[in-house]
Design brief:
Elements: H1 2-25, H2 30-56, H3 67-87, H4 93-106
């Protein structure tokens, strides 16, 4: 589920926004939109690797990872997924799609 929400849906949102921008401005800047999305996605992956590795890294004097470290990682992952999913509540797909249809009819 998180992979679908945070991996697939942003692509569809960016495609809609790029289409709307093209219709409003007459300039096709879809490459710029997808480049920005890819940069943000890669930055998120890098931050996630640093955060989750830091949580489960062995501390000096430790010989094994404690179960609590894995639980903490699971809690942090769940919270960040919920934050990402809740950000999609701000995306007004109906408004964007209706504006696209309106602009296509005018053309």
């Amino acid at each position: 589920m998180p992979q679908a929400i945070l991996g697939i849906l942003p692509q569809a949102c960016v495609a809609d926004v790029a289409e709307l921008s093209r219709l409003e401005t007459g300039e096709d800047r879809s490459g710029m939109f997808f480049a920005a999305r890819t940069f943000a996605f890669k930055m998120g992956q890098a931050i996630a690797m640093v955060v989750f590795t830091s949580i489960t890294a062995l501390r000096p004097g430790m010989t094994e990872v404690l179960p609590g470290q894995y639980r903490t990682t699971a809690v942090v992952a769940t919270v960040t997924c919920l934050i990402g999913a809740s950000l999609f509540l701000l995306y007004n797909e109906k408004m964007i799609l209706s504006r696209i249809e309106e602009l296509k009819k005018q053309s």
